[in-house]
Amino acid sequence: MKRKVVSLILVTALVASMTACGSSGEASTSGSSDSTSSGASSEEAKDDASAENTSATGEDENTLTVWAWDETFNIYAMNEAAKVYQKDHPDVKVNVINMPWEDTQTAITTAATSGDYSTLPDILLCQDNAFQKNVLSYPDLFVDITDSGIDFSQFAAGKTAYSVVDGKNYGVPFDNGAVIACYRTDILEQAGYTIEDLTDITWDEFQTIGEDVLAKTGYALNSTEAGEPDLVMMMLQSAGASLFDENGNPTIADNDALKKVVETYCSLAQAGVLQITDDNWDEYIKSFNSGKTAGAINGCWIMGSIQAAEDQSGNWGVTNMPSLVGVDGATNYSNNGGSSWAVTSNCKKTDLATDFLNSTFAGSVDFYAGILPSSGAIATWSPAASADVYSEPSEFFGGEPVFTKIVDYASKVPSNNTGAYYYEARDTVAVAITNVMNGADIDSELANAQATVESYMQ
Question: What pLDDT, in 10s, does the model give residues 290-342?
Fold first, then answer.
């Protein structure tokens, strides 16, 4: 009975966690344990945030103001962290303001360009793929926390790298975006395969098995949205490769790893092993919830969407992703999505801010064990995996302790360079792939993508 209750809690939590890697909907303000109605508009939230921040970062030395989004995930986690910290620091208060990521980015840009940082909170949540761009663009806005006492070696290296610039740490990693490959074990069985047959394999082996499964069952082994480059970026990072070099220069043309990724992607799609859905998130989810796709390869937060199909409980398994063939550094591990906490230069109590983060997100097994059942927030802080809740079997995924497995995967993800123009580059690569799928030359398209990104950087 206990196992069934835990499973039901985790299903609900993981459905909520699916939204954690994007921006939330409506904004609200919340304190260390209370929150107001979520019906406030984005503009109202920003006004509230400004008002809260004036006092929180001014005279009150025991109050920290934090910006984050998603009340059931990031905000919930920060409020729980406050409770943990308050056990030993009862005078400290944490005011958490619900700020959608788009509004946070606008506020960062406005503060930096005006030179007035007083509108910013003490701590803010930053999307990982935008972290380096913000630090490189606005170097005075974030506090260097390299020597703060936080042990960054205890976090997955690939995750930590998102918030590192010039060898300095500017962020405390939070949620886990480690890539997992989930497959319908009942469909695999119909074709004569098990989850073990799809573990530690290459993309070539994946295509061979996928073509056989498709022929025998009519199911594809993976799907992706049309024009969405997430799968491409996952493949690229799995080999420790990037669209930029360590100096931020684009490396799209003459990038052997990227060329192999494009070739692999096109081959999978043309064979029908990779189903291309409409450019619509709902259609993507339907492809494996109720469609003809027997797998999903994505960040681990995708489990929430998979478990929405309750009738499929027990018929899914989790393993690692395929690796690229003939590419130096190729692994079966990657990352997609996630965010990290940053201390802003407006913070007048950096010692308190860093001690708070060090004692919770970077130092408390009990904290991570407490937020997992209710939010599905899987840690990238390795010691968290020692908590009993991480080894709880998941009935939906064949009775496996999937959370322990995911923390292990995260520790093996290669680092990559996102650069200041990451989003522009990934979008140009998406266009290039679409053109290649329609018959264009790979080398020419990648050269065009390189030139496009270079034009943005001028």
Answer: 999 999 999 999 998 999 999 999 999 999 999 999 999 999 999 998 899 99
CA distances from 246 to 24, 238, 251, 352, 422 (A): 32, 17, 10, 32, 13
Q: Order of strands, edge to edge, in the sheet holding 316-319?
A: 295-299, 179-184, 316-319
The residue ranking higher by pLDDT, 30 or 129, is 129
Structure tokens at 159: 């995750």
**Counting Cβ atoms within 10 Å, is residue 64 exposed (0-12), middle (13-18) or buried (19+)?**
buried
Domains of the chain: 16-177+338-386 (3.40.190.10), 179-334+415-457 (3.40.190.10)
Q: By CB neighbour count within 10 A (0-12 exposed, 13-18 middle, 19+ buried), where does 309 fall?
A: middle
β-pair partners for 379: 175
Give, rounded to a whole angstrom, the gap between the first and last alpha carbons of the chain.
Answer: 62
CA distances from 63 to 38, 47, 143, 344, 347 (A): 23, 19, 18, 15, 11
**Cα separation of 321 and 318, whole Å?**
10
Cα separation of 287 and 279, whole Å? Answer: 12
Residue 63, pLDDT > 70, answer yes
Q: Identify any residues that bridge with 181 across adjacent strands, giving them in sequence order.
A: 297, 319
| Distances from the Cα of 453 to the Cα of 25, 162, 243, 244, angstroms | 31, 20, 10, 10
The pLDDT, as a whole number, for residue 166 is 93
Q: Mean pLDDT, to the nearest integer, of 182-203?
A: 98
What whole-number percentage of the chain has pLDDT above 90?
79
State how far the Cα of 24 lies from the Cα of 138, in Å rounded to an integer.
24
**Residue 231 to residue 167: CA distance in whole angstroms:** 28
Alpha-carbon span 109 to 111, nearest angstrom: 6
